Amino acid sequence: MLKLYLPEPGSDEFNEIVEGRDDVLVSDLAVTEIVSAAARRLRQGSLPREAARRLQHAILGRLDEGVYHRVELTREVHRRAEHLLLTLEDTPLRAADALHLALAATARAASLASFDARLVVAARAAGLAVYPS
Predict the structure, then answer these.
(1) Each residue's pLDDT tens digit, 112-129
(2) What is the DSSP string of 48-113?
(3) Residue ranges per structural domain of the chain
(4) Which band of pLDDT confidence, cut at 50, 70 and 90, is reported for residue 10?
């Protein structure tokens, strides 16, 4: 999601994929990860503090306005993530990645948008279409 708000490799492609869609699912976990990435850039000196705060407020605003649909980390999502961690043995998943996959599966998402190679492999193994393909 950070690619929607800050220019980086793949931003244009990701913006084309997401623009105009009304079925974008976002969790608070994703928001926290985006803010973490912005904070890292802030510490490195490549992003001003005010820009990082605007980015956080923009994402939260889109969630509050219903532009993005919020999906919640429930007990069911955690159990599904744990199942994925134990069954996708050939795909080294981090806990947060397993939670993202479980959120998508629980919300019955047809696809997952990711530029993370490990998450892409795991999403495909879990039966999700992945964008960009």
Answers:
(1) 988 889 999 999 998 999
(2) -HHHHHHHHHHHHHHHHHTSSEEE---HHHHHHHHHHHHH-TTS---HHHHHHHHHHHHTT-SEEE
(3) 1-10+25-71, 72-133
(4) confident
User: 62: Cβ–Cβ under 8 A, 6 or more apart, which residues?
Assistant: 26, 68
Radius of gyration of the chain (CA): 15
Query: What are the CA-CA distances from residue 79 to residues 35, 37, 106, 128 (Å)?
Result: 25, 27, 11, 18
* pLDDT of amino acid 108: 93
Cβ atoms of 92 and 118 closer than 8 Å? yes
Residue whose token pair is 């974008």: 24
Q: Which residues pair with 111 in a beta bridge?
A: 129
- The mean pLDDT value of the chain amounts to 93
Are the C-beta atoms of residues 80 and 102 closer than 8 Å to each other?
yes
Question: Which amino acid, one-letter code, is at 46?
Answer: S
User: Is the whole model's pTM more than 0.90, yes or no?
Assistant: no
